[in-house]
Automatic annotation (TrEMBL):
Binding site for ATP: 66-72
Function: Catalyzes the addition of meso-diaminopimelic acid to the nucleotide precursor UDP-N-acetylmuramoyl-L-alanyl-D-glutamate (UMAG) in the biosynthesis of bacterial cell-wall peptidoglycan.
Name of the protein this chain belongs to: UDP-N-acetylmuramoyl-L-alanyl-D-glutamate--2,6-diaminopimelate ligase
Group of enzyme by EC: ligase
Protein encoded by which gene: murE
Cofactor: Mg(2+)
Length: 428
């Protein structure tokens, strides 16, 4: 990509280089350094690029890593900071946003370094104090956050995902631990048993089950979230319309982050948290009558957390699994769905280069194949089937894609939205 300057530009692509431009050198493009030089570019470091773009090093970057909860935690922090009067920007799974305005569409969870610097440049020009970003394990492993100085790093949890890339949970944990190994300010979920390691210097903890710096002493999840929160700045009662224990973890992380970074008054924080209504595609209610919920959960742990939070309801669950990704999670997802669902409808997610039926068969290997399991590879037909099967007191839960607006088949992204499909079929 290119970032324009007064009389030149910065790029991270050697093919875009010409005399007088700047090539920002990163670990991921270092092998193209000579090519960039031969095309006439001046080689600069990430730090030199920040100075060239006028990015203020005082902008506070908050980085959230973990298998699940990154997006909701990031959005809770971002929107709460804005409610409290702090100009903020965000980058992550849902795209990039500058004080409530979208500035870039969805792409990678964590952008390449130069793209992130472009977001930081815009945030700096707008006068933002905070830049909140999701940090994926791929980005850590590929050094896509090199040169960024984090005011706070947050770890949410580590559960099975991305083993197609990392090959083992041990390697996955090692990569996550790398992000948490420095002396920067950190906030760690100590209830997690995923095996990550972190540098204890400047580390704070949060928990629902153990003694920690930020904790929920008692809570009620029957109708939203009500909890008695313990913090270094005192105890207070929390109320939120979000659902489930996993969202209480996300809210606890957000509360911890804000209290570590700002001297805010507890009543103002409580009110700002209460006003946060969640993220599109994360436990999103897209219809009340009938009750239809869409969620991004696409891992065994993610599915378990969502369905457990809704276990008091009669559930019809629609789900699939992505192609060209970790295959070992597929039967586990099937087993979890059947554990909670009155009816499980197994369908296609983003099959990519795989045959949808092959993925479905591997999901079903973990299920007891009886009349509570229905197979329908066409996702729209599966959603229609789920709606048609709903009784008066049933809830339809559609998992895997959240607010994604495409389905990837053989390298082509076709427009598809679970939410739009539901509203179309219900004629809402």
């Amino acid at each position: 990509m290119k970032i324009s300057l007064a009389n030149s530009y910065v790029t991270d692509n050697s093919n875009e280089c010409e005399s007088g431009c700047f090539f920002v050198l990163t670990k991921s493009n270092a092998k193209f350094k000579e090519s960039a030089q031969s095309n006439g570019a001046k080689i600069i470091s990430v730090d030199e690029c920040k100075k060239l773009l006028g990015i203020d090093e005082n902008i506070k970057i908050i980085g959230i890593t973990g298998t699940n909860g990154k997006t909701t935690t990031a959005w809770t922090i971002y929107e709460t900071l804005m409610q409290l009067g702090y100009k903020s920007a965000l980058s992550g799974t849902c795209g990039a946003f500058l004080h409530s305005k979208r500035i870039d569409a969805k792409s990678l969870t964590t952008s390449p370094v130069l793209q992130t610097l472009e977001y930081l440049k815009q945030a700096n020009e707008f006068g933002c104090k905070y830049f909140v970003m999701e940090v994926s394990s791929h980005a850590i492993d590929q050094d896509r956050v090199e040169g960024l100085k984090f005011a706070l790093k947050i770890f949410t949890n580590l559960t099975q995902d991305h083993l197609d890339y990392h090959k083992s949970m041990q390697e996955y944990a090692k990569v996550k631990s790398k992000f948490l190994s420095d002396d920067s300010l950190k906030l760690i979920n100590i209830d997690d048993e995923g095996g990550i390691e972190f540098n204890p210097i400047n580390s704070y903890t949060y928990s629902l089950k153990k003694d920690s710096d930020f904790a929920s002493l008692k809570y009620d999840l029957k109708d939203g979230i009500k909890a008695l929160m313990k913090t270094p700045k005192g105890e207070f009662e929390l109320a939120s319309s979000l659902q489930g224990e996993f969202n209480l973890y996300n809210l606890t992380a957000a509360i911890g982050a804000i209290l570590l970074l700002e001297d805010v008054k507890i009543p103002s924080l409580k009110e700002a948290i209460y006003k946060f209504k969640g993220v599109a595609g994360r436990m999103e209610v897209v219809s009340q009558k009938p009750l239809v919920i869409v969620d991004f959960a696409h891992t065994p742990d993610g599915m378990q957390k969502v369905l457990n939070a809704l276990r008091h309801l009669n559930l019809i669950v629609i789900f699939g699994a992505g192609g060209d990704r970790d295959r070992t999670k597929r039967p586990k997802m099937g087993k979890i769905a059947q554990q909670y669902a009155k009816i499980s409808i197994v369908t296609s997610d983003n099959p990519r280069s795989e045959e949808p039926e092959t993925i479905i068969d591997e999901i079903c290997a973990g299920m007891n194949m009886n009349n509570t399991v229905i197979l329908e590879s066409d996702r729209k037909k599966a959603i229609k089937l789920g709606l048609d099967l709903l009784d008066k007191d049933d809830t339809l839960v559609i998992l895997g894609k959240g607010d994604e607006d495409y389905q990837e088949i053989n390298g082509v992204k076709h427009h598809f939205s679970d939410k739009e499909t539901v509203l179309e079929l219900l004629k809402i």
